[in-house]
Design goal:
alpha/beta, 2 domains
């Protein structure tokens, strides 16, 4: 970009024209700077932006038990999930093996798990650059995609929390990139690599199907010169997937009843969870703008592809399938962790839409991009403000709990932030359990809950539990040991239950009764 500057000299009225060159850095340089900024701020607020959750506690315990030869099991969540103290079958295992290797190298600490998520987040941004750079009409549009992603609250939180979604996305995006190369220039090797990374994505988390399903449909309906090529392509993609899934199946085929029971219980609980996206749209104004913009943008892209008859080209058809997949499934999967898939690829379709408007000289459409960046930054600043307002550190919070629990006691945790990591390190004498976030309308099995609650004497809670459990706590309360609702502190309530022989059991109405699967 050339800038011209006109000035007048003291000795002459004749203007002197000065010219200087000013050019923007190349897109790759800008993207690299954005990714480094993302890493810096993720590490800066690694343990504060999103406090430790009970999922992280359960996964951490499963991995540490695996490292110490006790298998992929959990005592924290036993009984809530059938036979979890013997073997965990409720998730594909790949993430846990990755984290186990990291813990063995760098030490068994949740910070290592969270730093791995930051690394995965940075890899996601790099892979998005590789995927998007050839699909946009303007070279700097890819910078816009990355700018949307580094400021996106869902990718930010996902890149901090020690969960498996980001690793799943890494594998899924690699599969997407290989498949795109295959669509442009089909080779056996690119199709095999597509199948391998698609399988790794599924073996990390079932949400990998958000990538795998569009890839599979794209391969199924791709253009082939003959039937032999069609069958060969299906096999090259499908065989690695079948081998990977079959390998996983060998770990539970001898315990299929436990595998089935654990997943039935999980599906039962998810059935009664509210749709988190709909709740966010209804209750959170800034995220309402963010989510609705991406939903409308994906929908507009899909409609535009259909109306303009662009689906005959197989690369367009693949993008169409990705837009459809990321429009539908993050809503249907209910939980907050899965919303990241919408902005992840939604940012791409948004920039494709904006370019479409720009080429038609509808320049004001670019304000949508400015709006989303502004909304993302406001959400981020609100998060930082919450961190500043919390004057109580995690260590002080954990100490407040630890000081009020007698030695060797049995304790049920149903609280956010989860104090497990402090208590695990400072109070190994405690026998801890974790409680699920049971929705109010979820039918319960009283026999299971009586088994669990009869094995604890203290409750550490902050989240509002199921009405049935609230009633149990009220009926069997011996004393309120400690309560803290001070400004700048995390909400905290420690209860001591009556002696076991004096307690009333959990009872549910007939309409709220549900029996755990039997073996």
């Amino acid at each position: 970009m050339r800038l011209g500057v006109v000035v007048a000299t003291e000795k002459s009225d004749k203007p002197l024209k000065l010219e200087m060159d000013f050019s923007l850095p190349k897109p790759l340089v800008l993207v690299t700077c954005l990714i480094l900024t993302f890493i810096f701020f993720s590490l800066l607020f690694l343990t504060t932006k999103f406090p430790f959750s009970n999922d992280e506690a359960i996964y951490f315990e499963m991995v540490t038990r695996l490292i110490h030869g006790q298998g992929l099991t959990s005592l924290l969540f036993r009984d809530f999930i059938p036979q979890l103290d013997q073997q965990a079958f409720w998730y594909p295992p790949l993430y846990f093996y990755f984290i186990a290797l990291l813990y063995m190298i760098f030490g068994e600490t949740i910070v290592v798990g969270r730093m791995f998520s930051v690394l995965c987040g940075a890899m996601v941004l790099g892979l998005m650059y590789l995927f998007v750079r050839t699909k946009l009409s303007y070279s700097y549009s890819v910078v816009g995609v990355i700018a949307l992603l580094i400021t996106d609250p869902y990718l930010q939180d996902g890149s901090i929390i020690a969960r498996m979604e980001l690793l799943c996305i890494v594998f899924g995006l690699v599969a997407v990139i290989f498949h795109w190369q295959w669509l442009k220039k089909p080779t056996f090797l690119t199709n095999v690599w597509t199948g391998i990374f698609a399988t790794l994505s599924l073996l990390t988390h079932p949400t990998g199907f958000i990538f795998v399903l569009p890839i599979g449909i794209s391969i199924l309906f791709a253009h082939y010169p003959n039937v032999r090529s069609r069958i060969t392509s299906w096999l090259l993609f499908g065989v690695p997937t079948l081998i990977g899934l079959a390998t996983w199946a060998t770990t539970f085929i001898g315990h299929f009843d436990a595998f089935l029971a654990q997943n039935v219980v999980q599906m039962h609980r998810k059935e009664y969870i509210n749709y988190f996206m709909l709740r966010s749209i209804r209750e959170l104004p800034l995220k309402r703008v963010l989510l609705l913009t991406y939903l409308f943008s994906n929908s507009f892209y899909i409609i535009r592809m259909l109306e303009q008859g662009l689906l005959k080209k197989q690369t367009n058809r693949f993008l169409f399938l990705l837009a459809l997949s990321t429009l539908i499934f993050p809503v249907l999967m209910k939980e907050m962790w899965y919303l990241v898939y919408l902005p992840l690829l939604g940012s791409v379709f948004l920039l494709l839409n904006l370019e479409w408007f720009w080429l038609r000289k509808i320049y004001y459409a670019g304000l949508v991009f400015v709006l989303l960046i502004a909304v993302n930054l406001m959400i981020y600043l609100n998060s930082i403000n919450q961190i500043v307002l919390k004057t109580q550190t995690y260590e002080e919070y954990g100490q407040a709990i630890s000081d009020r629990l007698p030695e060797g006691e049995k304790v049920l945790l149903s609280i956010f932030p989860d104090p497990y990591f402090y208590l695990h390190q400072q109070r190994p004498d405690l026998q801890l359990r974790e409680s699920p976030n049971t929705p109010n309308n979820e039918p319960l099995d009283p026999a299971i809950y009586n088994t669990i609650l009869s094995d604890v004497n203290y409750l550490v809670i902050s989240m509002v539990p199921n009405n049935t459990l609230t009633q149990y706590y009220q009926e069997n309360l011996e004393t309120v040991v400690y309560q803290d609702k001070s400004a700048g502190h995390y909400d905290l309530l420690i209860l001591k239950l009556k002696p076991l022989e004096e307690r009333a059991p959990v009872q549910v109405r007939k309409s709220m009764y549900w029996q755990y699967p039997k073996f």
